[in-house]
Amino acid sequence: MQKEENLFKNEISDWETWSVVFHSMEAFEPLVQHILKKEKLPVVELEECKPGTNAVFKAGSYVIKVYAPKESGLQTERDYFTELFSMERAKKLGVSVPAVIAKGEIADKYLFKYLIMEYAHGIELADAKIRLTDGDKRYIGKQLRDITDRWNTYCETFNDIDVKERALRNTRWNASPDNFFKERRDYVRSLAMHDLVYVHGDLTEDNILVDDNNTLTIIDFADSLLAPKEYELVGLVCEVFKFGGPYLEGFFETVDVAEITEKCLKGLLLHDFGVNIIQDNISDIDEIDSIATLRSKIYHKLKANR
What's the pTM? Predict the structure, then answer.
């Protein structure tokens, strides 16, 4: 592969150096415009997209995602192929996702992989919530149930993530009270991993787009993996629905608070960002002194919104 001239000028040596630059249009514009020329697409000024982990910008009617180089310490190659695989699978299953226009890599100062996708019209669910009626919320919950029923199914291995081993190694739980830390570790060890299905892995309100008709498009598949269905469910119930009754009514045929509590408990204790979900939506992690306490807090959050 012939090396291009260096269009990207910043130094990347770890996550910290990547995190300060990946949302910078100034840093990426020369590189992105070169990629657009290479793919024979219109060269236009970039617009900001909400920052995530990789560099994402709007370019006219397209969105271009430039993946972090290996020097950042991130699993760039895995994320790139995971996203490609997942979007193709979702499309085949009839789920609305952006079409991939171009893909590839460019050797500049670093080796950057990239995807160019059509721009999906709509706003993030987080921004749409202010205008939604209870009926709208039920409709969105129903759509999300249909989407997850389609893709939370058996799937061949597509990346090297072992959800149980990763959960046991997850250092985010180190800050939790000792008794709960030990209980959680034993709980995860006891889980039988015979029910693994495909999950999006990051189905948050930022990755769910809503158009004027409240029809959904899903984006950002880089965190997809094989895991129990509860892994997907907990993010929806806690982060997207915020335990809200209308969403739950749309998603579940029958809202059984005790059953949903147990499913959320399993998903939380296994999820790579379980601590964050607890902190943001349930309780300060310092207040979770046992699994029983966490179960009770989830139950009462659900009950209060019913």
Answer: 0.94
